[in-house]
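quick q for whoever's on today - can somebody do inverse folding on this one?? i tried earlier but teh output was garbage lol. tokens:
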């Protein structure tokens, strides 16, 4: 029989300000040399000052990140606390997350910063504790097990929710609405070939896979893998 049962629930909104004091303003610099130059800080004997095109473009609307979290939980004890069960289900919506994204070189800047990304995290956490021997015994035997399952999903991206791809071709990081945060596209080896003639033929074109020839005959195909595990678990036994 149950000795104790408690149902929990909570809702809250928290803020986070990861930006610097002046990130909402365009940065200035006293170095007006070309990017990567040794430095020019004066002109005709007067000090120079100009916009710093090496820093990210920002917006005066840059603000705090906001997270709305809802949690439901259950605590239950059975058989004089020899069985203890704890469970939690949560949903956390992180909105207006600050994100730097690349800009065309024609703008003069490399990237822009603003509250552009929204992500949802939801999951379940369960913990079970078992006291296998009566409390009046001289020794004890307990088992503690837990499992946590988390799912994250991108809800909003800049530029009309267009996907963002960064990184080298063999290890690209991808942001796509409706998908987990930072999926990875990589290469998977499918064999090593002694000569170009041994490289398989693409059935759609009738030509050999030229990309594989360029990487020294190591055939590779693009695959998508999500960073991180879908769940984590653990079990501890104490005697």
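ok took a stab at it. sequence:
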């Amino acid at each position: 029989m149950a000795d104790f049962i408690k149902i929990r629930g909570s809702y809250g909104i928290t803020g986070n300000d990861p930006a610097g004091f002046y990130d909402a303003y365009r940065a200035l610099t006293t170095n007006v040399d070309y990017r990567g130059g040794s430095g020019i800080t004066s002109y005709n004997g007067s000090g120079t000052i100009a916009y710093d095109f090496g820093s990210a473009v920002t917006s005066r609307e840059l603000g705090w990140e906001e997270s709305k979290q809802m949690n439901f939980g259950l605590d239950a004890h059975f058989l004089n606390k020899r069985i203890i069960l704890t469970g939690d289900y949560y949903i956390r919506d992180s909105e207006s997350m600050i994100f730097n994204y690349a800009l065309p070189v024609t703008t003069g800047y490399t990237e822009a910063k603003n509250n552009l990304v929204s992500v949802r995290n939801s999951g379940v956490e369960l913990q079970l504790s078992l006291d296998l021997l009566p409390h009046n015994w001289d020794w004890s035997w307990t088992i503690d097990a837990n499992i946590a399952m988390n799912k994250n999903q991108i809800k909003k991206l800049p530029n009309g929710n267009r996907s963002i791809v960064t990184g080298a071709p063999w290890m690209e990081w991808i942001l796509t609405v409706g998908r987990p945060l930072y999926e990875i596209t990589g290469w998977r080896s499918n064999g090593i070939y002694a000569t170009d003639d041994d490289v398989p033929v693409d059935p759609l074109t009738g030509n050999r896979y030229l990309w594989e020839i360029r990487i020294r005959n190591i055939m590779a195909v693009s695959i998508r893998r999500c960073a991180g595990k879908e769940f984590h678990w653990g079990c501890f036994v104490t005697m």
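fwiw The chain is about 5% helix and 55% strand. also Residues 210-214 form the longest helix (5 residues). so keep that in mind when u check it
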